[in-house]
Amino acid sequence: MSTQGQVITCKAAVAWEPNKPLVIEDVEVAPPQAGEVRIKILYTALCHTDAYTWSGKDPEGLFPCVLGHEAAGIVESVGEGVTDVKPGDHVIPCYQAECKDCKFCKSGKTNLCGKVRAATGVGVMMNDRKSRFSIKGKPIYHFMGTSTFSQYTVVHDVSVAKIDPQAPLEKVCLLGCGVPTGLGAVWNTAKVESGSIVSVFGLGTVGLAVAEGAKAAGASRIIGIDIDGKKFERAKDFGVTEFINPKDHDKPIQQVIVDMTDGGVDYSFECIGNVSVMRSALECCHKGWGMSVIVGVAASGQEISTRPFQLVTGRVWKGTAFGGFKSRSQVPWLVDKYMKKEIKVDEYITHNQTLSEINKAFDMMHEGDCLRVVLDMQT
Ligand SMILES: NC(=O)C1=CN([C@@H]2O[C@H](COP(=O)(O)OP(=O)(O)OC[C@H]3O[C@@H](n4cnc5c(N)ncnc54)[C@H](O)[C@@H]3O)[C@@H](O)[C@H]2O)C=CC1
Ligand SMILES: N[C@@H](CCC(=O)N[C@@H](CSC=O)C(=O)NCC(=O)O)C(=O)O
Ligand SMILES: [Zn+2]
Ligand SMILES: [Zn+2]
């Protein structure tokens, strides 16, 4: 029986309050309005940004909400005027939209899009500034324009990438966030050249994807820095050539790196979300040209600092959102690269769980051996 035009009642993990366990609830998901798409989510991974917002440290965090933004699914129905996808299409929801028409999209200078950001930042849909999720009439906020911890979600059409239907959704869900962010930080934001010396702070999924991207770009040395020494062995498989544990050194870590690289690295990447490490990442860069890219998301109220002289003497400080990838145009390309075995995805999945086990899955995510946990949403 078709569900088009009907309210769908399904299971979703609801964050009622910061830091309180998520609760699996029966949630009503309204039909998509004009310019919207309702997606049956089959698989979602957990990202540290979900945990960050859940913790209450995100200034944009709103409760109650349905978190989740790294997923894959199948279009169930579309609203009026939606032409780029149709029911049955395999898709990846994209928290970074791409309308191809706004000032940002047309600039050729950024992957940020202005079309729906004002609505997604406050947990509602553009059309009527309301949520499509409710429980017994009480609205539940959307999150990042994706809310993938629900068996069905509604997103804006500019936030949907249509992908190869042959691609395994239980794997390519990862191409909704962490892996593209690391690869793109190297390829799009820093534009690392062959022969470069690179340092990566934090060897979780994002940092390992930076290493993978740097290896593909032909970096001559890839220095991985992590306070958890257990991360080092696995990181070799992603391209890391040298390892430093800051706990093994008395000197500031930036000085250790400057000393071992004849003046500093060409490119550094902060993949943790720690503002003190962001400073170290900048200051380990080579005078005159070294570039540091902030990838990690820092808590509300945190600020970065350095001596301005670091920038006066030629170091460059940048940041990246979704690795600078234009989502609707380039996520399908990333899926194709995965299908051709040109990028890793499976290797980042260390755990599998189901939606009902989501709280356990978040506990796992915080364990040292975990990269990504993928949830099967339909069991
Ligand atoms: N800018 C963007 O578009 C995106 C940003 N992110 C952010 O990227 C960050 C990294 O994400 P994941 O790799 O999934 O996280 P993760 O928690 O798996 O990895 C972080 C790593 O940093 C290490 N670490 C922690 N403190 C450290 C310190 N002081 N010095 C050295 N290493 C330290 C940990 O041991 C861990 O291996 C998070 O802040 C996440 O929110 C994630 C996706 C997209
Ligand atoms: N809401 C937070 C900012 C969170 C943030 O920086 N998000 C990243 C993606 S992190 C994915 O896991 C991002 O793309 N930001 C750009 C954007 O438009 O949101 C805060 O207000 O601090
Ligand atoms: Zn993420
Ligand atoms: Zn746009």
UniProtKB/TrEMBL annotation:
Residue span, Alcohol dehydrogenase-like C-terminal domain: 206-334
GO annotation terms (biological process): formaldehyde catabolic process
InterPro entries: ADH-like_C (IPR013149), ADH-like_N (IPR013154), ADH_3 (IPR014183), ADH_Zn_CS (IPR002328), GroES-like_sf (IPR011032), NAD(P)-bd_dom_sf (IPR036291)
Stated name of the protein: S-(hydroxymethyl)glutathione dehydrogenase
Reaction catalysis annotation: S-(hydroxymethyl)glutathione + NAD(+) = S-formylglutathione + NADH + H(+); a secondary alcohol + NAD(+) = a ketone + NADH + H(+); a primary alcohol + NAD(+) = an aldehyde + NADH + H(+); S-(hydroxymethyl)glutathione + NADP(+) = S-formylglutathione + NADPH + H(+)
EC number(s) on file: 1.1.1.284
GO cellular component assignments: cytosol
Organism: Lithospermum erythrorhizon
UniProt entry keywords in alphabetical sequence: Cytoplasm, Metal-binding, NAD, Oxidoreductase, Zinc
Domain Alcohol dehydrogenase-like N-terminal, first and last residues per copy: 34-163
Record text on subunit structure and interactions: Homodimer.
Top EC class of this enzyme: oxidoreductase
Cofactor(s) it depends on: Zn(2+)
Keyword Repressor found: no
Family: Belongs to the zinc-containing alcohol dehydrogenase family. Class-III subfamily.
Localisation: Cytoplasm
Pfam families hit by this protein: ADH_N, ADH_zinc_N
